[in-house]
Write a structure and sequence with these properties.
Elements: H1 3-26, H2 36-40, E1 54-57, E2 61-64, E3 67-68, H3 69-75, H4 87-96, H5 102-114, H6 120-127, H7 135-146, H8 151-158, H9 165-192, H10 206-214, H11 219-231, H12 240-250, H13 255-266, H14 274-289, H15 296-308, H16 326-338, H17 343-361, H18 373-382, H19 391-412, H20 425-438
Helix pairs in contact: 4-19, 5-9, 6-7, 7-9, 7-13, 8-9, 9-10, 9-19, 10-11, 11-16, 11-19, 12-13, 12-19, 13-19, 14-18, 15-17, 16-18
Length: about 450
């Protein structure tokens, strides 16, 4: 067993004992009440999931194992001469719970580089799809094709003890993460660069190698990729991609199947696809007005038109957050250093100045502030990654880090199959009638 796996197992054994005592001593304690509105409206705020890797505060934003994004930009190891954290370090933190050393991060980098070989049938599966297929569809199909490699599925068929599940899930998670950049880059080069593929460079870190395989050698873009892959990795357990991965994994579907489920959810426009929608929405505005830098008044009119057409303003709002997403702020800070004069970046900043008050004035949008997707496209576009259909694949590669680290925890802690109670409206009406009578 590698030492990262040993460290994880030691932490998991300890937490497993603590959870057993918690349930034995306080298992009947009520965490919260569930209202009729919550049952109908997307289960907002119901505390019914355990996710160890990160925790979201409505006002403060995400914390990974207690660390905010600004703290992580400071504390996590960086590539030599690099300015942004290496996503390998965030993965170690989410998995083991401790800030990694440079050696830990190098260990993970080299493990992923060693495991990154993608079998030919995966490329053949991608090639079987028309080239104009949406990149997220190609990505999900490729993950399914990778599933033939699952050590967990094989071991389960051979009959392993429940106590060993975590070990095979860990191995699958590491191999899958190692292979995703190659698969994603293949899809990108196939669709947009005439199939002119670029071989991996095993000497580079995970993020820089991904950028290299996409065809970008600019060190500014490598820094952006490391930041991007770090900040998109996890957002506690209730978001669609994390929850879908966890839910499907709870049926002991292997990590490939579970992660594919998460990615199918990430492909929705209210979730990960919003990053594509944002840049399309901005480009439509720029084209309509014939200028790269519309004025704040023009932006305000455009937002009002979008709302009046019954559409959402992409990149704004959140089911949990009630302030500007710190992932937006991190990207804004990056842009201030690297590309403050870029017209699309400036437009993103102008939207930020006018959108919140307009969204707030509708009286129904609970969070008028920008989320992570409001900024990411402008940065990618600045460096020449202009094919917005591909943006959600980048999000997906990053999201693998959080949801697969969580899946390791789910199996190490022996969480059971997930099966919440559902009701019919008739049941709710009867319940309301009974309780109104009693009151
Ligand atoms: N533009 C227009 N209307 C919006 C809105 C926005 N950005 N955000 C919320 N609303 C609307 C909702 O559609 C809802 O309208 P109805 O009552 O008519 O159905 C109302 O405001 C209340 O919604 P809410 O409670 O504030 O928001 P939800 O928790 O239901 O939804 C989210 C959250 C993110 C889906 C929503 O804000 C949205 O659609 N935003 C735009 C898409 C987006 O940026 N998604 C990315 C989120 C981050 C991510 O997962 O990557």
């Amino acid at each position: 067993m590698g030492y990262v796996k040993d460290n994880f197992k030691a932490k998991a054994d300890q937490l497993s004992q603590e959870i057993k005592s918690l349930i034995a001593e306080h298992g009947n304690m009520v965490l919260d009440k569930v209202t009729v509105a919550q049952a109908y409206q997307g289960m907002r705020g119901i505390p019914g999931l355990i996710t160890e890797t990160s925790l979201l505060d409505a006002n403060e934003g995400i914390r990974f194992r207690g660390y905010s994004i600004p703290q992580l930009r400071d504390l996590l190891p960086k590539a030599p001469g690099g300015s942004e954290p290496l996503p390998e370090g965030l993965f170690y933190l989410m998995l083991v719970g401790d800030i990694p050393t440079t050696e830990d991060v190098e260990h993970i980098s080299s493990t992923w580089a060693r495991r990154s070989h993608v079998p030919n049938h995966v490329f053949a599966a991608i090639e079987a799809l028309p080239v104009n297929t949406h990149p997220m569809t190609q990505f999900c199909a490729a993950i399914m094709a990778l599933q033939t490699e699952s050590k967990f599925a094989k071991a389960y068929q051979e009959g392993i003890s429940k106590k060993e599940h975590w070990s095979f899930v860990y191995e699958d998670a590491m191999t899958l993460i190692a292979r995703l950049p190659r698969v994603a880059a293949y899809i990108y080069r196939r669709k947009y660069k005439n199939g002119d593929h670029i071989q991996p460079d095993g000497m580079l870190d995970w993020g820089a190698n991904f950028a290299h395989m996409l065809g970008f050698e600019d060190k500014g873009f490598w820094a952006l990729m490391r930041l991007y892959l770090t900040i998109h990795a996890d957002h506690e357990g209730g978001n669609v991609s994390a929850h879908a991965t966890h839910l499907v994994g709870s049926a002991l579907s292997d990590p490939y199947l579970s992660f594919a489920a998460g990615m199918l959810g990430l492909a929705g426009p209210l979730h990960g696809l919003a990053n594509q929608e944002v840049i399309r929405w901005i480009e439509e505005l720029q084209e309509k007005l014939g200028t790269q830098e519309p004025t704040k008044e023009q932006i305000a009119d455009y937002i009002k038109t979008t709302l009046s057409e019954g559409k959402v303003v992409p990149g704004y709002g959140h089911a949990v957050l009630r302030k500007t997403d710190p992932r937006f702020t991190a990207q804004m800070e990056f842009a201030k250093t690297h590309c403050p004069e870029d017209p699309t970046v400036k437009t993103v900043w102008n939207i930020y100045e006018v959108a919140p008050s307009i969204l707030e004035s509708t009286g129904k949008i609970k969070n008028p502030w920008p989320n992570v997707d409001a900024h990411s496209g402008a940065l990618l576009k600045h460096y020449g990654l202009v094919e917005e259909d591909f943006y959600t694949v980048l999000f997906g590669v990053s999201r693998a880090l959080g949801v697969l680290a969580s899946l390791c925890w789910d199996r190490a802690l022996g969480f059971p199959i997930e099966r919440p109670k559902s009701m019919t409206t008739e049941w709710v009406k009867n319940f309301v009638a009974e309780n109104t009578k009693m009151a």
